[in-house]
Amino acid sequence: MTRATGVGSMPGEDAAAYAEAVKAVLGELPDLPHVPELPGRGSTASMTGRALAVLEGLDVDLQPAGWRLVGTSGAPGVDHRRARSLLAQDLDCVEELTQGYEGAFKTQVAGPWTLAATVEKPRGDRVLADHGARRDLAESLAEGLRSHIRDVRRRVPGATSLVVQVDEPALPAVLTGSVPTASGFGKHRVVHPPEASALLETVLSAIAEEGAEPWVHSCAPGVPWGLVRGAGATGFVVDLSVLSAADHDTVAEALEGGVSVALGVVPTLEPAGGTSDKALVQRVERWLDMLGLDPEAGTLLVGPGCGLAGASTAWSRKALTLSRQVAAALS
Question: What b/e string do you get for 245-266 counting C-beta neighbours within 10 Å, with b at 16 or more?
Fold first, then answer.
């Protein structure tokens, strides 16, 4: 059976919008709802801010240039405390609105390489520039996720299985040496695949050891899905529109090999000419036919191509509705 799910982010800028987002996700994605993210509320609610709220043993603060590591004092600054408080408030809302829910459930967190490419070291430049710092950040994220997974399970006791989606939009840039330095005049050195795989595996293994399913999401082109699978991902969340010819084969092979594949087919912004569930179903069917697969081959899901934070509220809801309708038609 094909299921529908979402990537994570939704539009909105306050607590009321967050509650409406949770209701929309639960109503439109009954097979695999998720913890919504509303980055429109500011840096503490951004993908980076949410992940830093989960860290264990590392403190951060917010500078004009963005988030920065400040050490291991155990006394987080005001911005770090705000990020943690906002995450706790959001989970309070999720806990309240999922009363009586039973089924699979998903939460999301930025991955170690995306954090390394966006967070600064205490004395400037990205964590990406320092082997030891990026290892410490990955280990801190892994340990923090253990507690986070237990917390989500406590709050959503009806979750029969829990998926943790690790967002890695920066992974292709990290591997190709395309991440700018802090000055903007240079690029960080290429990270070679063995190290990239090892740090990703640190995080994915921690998720698996807590009994959750580690999935990896990226809607950037050039993601090495073979490396991602080798690091321990049991699910891919991919945007169909950015897959290369080689990616199609890798994703299809993973799908046949037991990896769950959430295929992003619904536009993240409302198309000028509109779209329909019938057109989207045909798009998925053409993809399956090209690869010689059928909808029952492995665990196939459908959803938006990427996060919906930039969409209107009306389209974000419509995108979830279309995802559900496409999944139902494919089933």
Answer: eebeebbbebbeeebbbbbbbb
DSSP 331: -
Nearest to 233 by CA among 263, 203, 195: 203
Count how many Cα atoms sit within 13 Å of the Cα of residue 316 in the half-sphere of its side chain: 26
Q: How far apart are alpha carbons 244 and 27 in whole angstroms?
A: 33
Report the distance separating Cα 208 and Cα 123, nearest Å. 34
Sequence-ordered list of residues with C-beta below 8 angstroms from that of 311, at least 6 positions apart, any chain: 11, 268, 269, 270, 319
- Whole-number Å distance between alpha carbons of 311 and 57: 36
Q: Distance between CA atoms of 95 and 93, rounded to whole angstroms?
A: 5
What's the pTM value of the predicted model, to 2 decimals? 0.95
Query: What is the tens place of the pLDDT at every residue in 305-326?
Result: 999 999 999 999 999 999 999 9
Give the residue from 92, 109, 115, 169 showing the smallest Cα distance to 144: 109
Cβ atoms of 26 and 54 closer than 8 Å: no
Q: What is the residue type of 279?
A: A
* Cα–Cα distances in angstroms (integers) from residue 161 to residues 33, 95, 203, 252, in the given order: 11, 16, 18, 24
